[in-house]
Amino acid sequence: MTLTVFADRMSQPSRAIIIFCKVNGIDFEEVRIDLAKRQQLTPQFQEITPMKKVPAIVDGRFKLFESHAILIYLACSFPGIADHWYPADLFLRAKIHSVLDWHHSNLRSGAAGYVLNSTLGPALGLPLNPEAAAKSEKLLSASLGKIESFWLKGRGRFLLGSTQPSIADLSLVCEIMQLELVDEKDRERILGPHKRVMKWVADTKNATSPHFDQVHSVLLKLKEKLQSERAVGETSQNVLPSKL
Amino acid sequence: MTLTVFADRMSQPSRAIIIFCKVNGIDFEEVRIDLAKRQQLTPQFQEITPMKKVPAIVDGRFKLFESHAILIYLACSFPGIADHWYPADLFLRAKIHSVLDWHHSNLRSGAAGYVLNSTLGPALGLPLNPEAAAKSEKLLSASLGKIESFWLKGRGRFLLGSTQPSIADLSLVCEIMQLELVDEKDRERILGPHKRVMKWVADTKNATSPHFDQVHSVLLKLKEKLQSERAVGETSQNVLPSKL
After folding, report:
1. What architecture is domain A85-209?
2. Which of A84, A83, A82, A53 is nearest to A70 (CA)?
3. For residue range A144-202, what is the model confidence (pLDDT) as tens digits?
4. Choosing among B47, B89, B98, which should be mutated to test the A contact, i.e. which has the most A CBs within 10 A?
5. Which helix or strand (DSSP H or E) is residue A3 part of?
6. Fold (CATH) for A3-83
7. With CB atoms 3.0 to 4.6 Å apart as the test, which of A184, B27, B94, B100 could cross-link to A73 if both were Cys?
């Protein structure tokens, strides 16, 4: 029985699961749960997970949600997954758990909160909230600082000084990619000071090529759309005074 | 070399680690990091963890933070830990990861936010914030509802229908215990509707007796102190009108 991945590629944890499967040659069926159409709220999807969130998987009779739990499950239950994704070594594995746990209340919370409140909210039926966006940006910037100064310490190009990526690299980098949606000058302000983070994002992208870019193409299409809308908005604003 | 646990028993994840060690006969030295005195900000503690948060452990040359990562590490690295704490079975283990991941942005975020903003803030130098408390209460109540209706489904007394507790039971119940600090009527309003949750808290307490109560005694002392202060406050308020 094939693995089924319920996902929306607009969701950063969904993308991490899909890229992991593709990079590791895991055979799976992708079922799109369109968040913009609120398909995560349907009774059918609640049969898969009562939490009404993507991603979720069904593998035979086994259902699972929460992206980190899914990544670990996939790394342990499919044959031939290279050890670097989720090392068997007790100490390395513990450090990976530490990064993944830290992620929830730091980078994830900051980045998702910032993108939602500064840019993406209206597409999901929510208002923009500059105050919440500013609060999230603070957490996001502090988190990027910690990645730069602590998690990326060491000789390797990846988290924990590793020479090859783990599920933690994939999870965190997919989160950072969500910042592609925000205004160019905001992204530059937030990411610009973190050169090692930007290099690590590029390294993770390269290490999972061509799947990384393919899976992110939906996000990058929305980025273009939002850029065009902002350009039109700015032009209108520039034009307005002369019209008044 | 003995395991060192850096903790403040006022911190719910700290208590989970200490109880786990005691119940499982793990020899450890407890080093108190007094959060009320901001000892987590000292350069000495930053040598242990740059995140400035408890709990953290040092085991020989190995340092680790994030309580779930620590619980998993302890369950895997010390001999004789019963399997039910962190089952070797792939599917059970995946479900435990799912509960623990879910916890971060749900019960943990809701309960910690509610207690901090409604009650504990001033003790840590932060103002009370009724608006933030109300928002956190909503998340907390929804999380308790999900524990009641989903995570506690099944025949056993513990999460995931298990007959014996896992590290997830310990982590989540220690979080719920933090509600002991809030006003009795608020706790009743929040916990009252969730009878299965309250039974599960009692079952987890019993399964880890006498360590659970011993480790929580600091919290219960603060509870008494806060109750006395509230009683004095209410008496003053009742007396005021006749004095005016």
Report:
1. Up-down Bundle (1.20)
2. A53
3. 999 999 999 988 999 999 999 999 999 999 999 999 999 999 999 999 999 999 999 99
4. B98
5. strand A3-7
6. Glutaredoxin (3.40.30)
7. B94
